[in-house]
Amino acid sequence: MKKDKRDDTATLTALAHRVTPAYVRMLVRGKRKNKEDIVSTYQNICEAKNRWSKQTK
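Now predict its structure.
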């Protein structure tokens, strides 16, 4: 059975803020109190990935 590869955005954000990727995912989903700096980093990485992906098409 093939496993889907997870997006590494949460991992990159976690490394930058010294938290776990699971914690970042909980913040993004709204299951933990919002830490604006971590969520902001996550969103910036997502935007950069989207821009890069559009440029490569």
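The radius of gyration is 13 Å.
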